[in-house]
Design brief:
The protein has about 120 residues and is of the alpha/beta class. It has one domain. It has five helices and four strands, in the order E-H-E-H-E-E-H-H-H. The protein has a four-stranded parallel β-sheet with strand order 2-1-3-4. Strand 1, helix 1 and strand 2 form a beta-alpha-beta unit. The protein is globular.
Length: about 120
């Protein structure tokens, strides 16, 4: 079985890559379709994901969707329905993304572009 990790945003992708690099997951990069995680919300709109699915000869791909909201349904194109055996959804907490923003030294920039975050930050101080 191969795992197709589809991350909703760049923050989730960075977090997944950190976890993979530190061997903090129950699988390794060798278990991933294309040996990598992808920044993709849907299969049909990602040329990288479609290419990886086209190259892989097996019919045992588990899709793992990671994002801060999972309200949109994953549409599996007809061409790939036989390749994909299941879909799992994982939701990240906003605090996890904030920790990444802080660790990258981007908190001030983030707060300058996000008025809701500024209000939330001020209330909790």
């Amino acid at each position: 079985m191969k795992r197709l990790i589809m991350c909703e945003g760049p923050n989730e992708l960075v977090i997944v890559n950190i976890l993979l690099e530190n061997e903090a997951l129950i699988f390794t990069e060798d278990d991933l379709l294309g040996l990598t995680a992808y920044h993709a919300r849907q299969i049909r709109t990602s040329t990288q994901v479609k290419a990886a699915l086209n190259i892989y000869p097996g019919n045992d791909v588990l899709v793992m969707r990671i994002g801060d909201k999972q309200s949109d349904a994953l549409t599996i194109p007809v061409d790939y329905q036989k390749k994909i055996t299941g879909v799992e959804k994982y939701s990240t907490l906003p605090e996890l993304e904030m920790l990444l923003i802080i660790s990258e030294g981007l908190a001030r920039e983030f707060l300058s572009h996000n008025s809701f975050a500024v209000k939330s930050f001020q209330i909790q101080r």
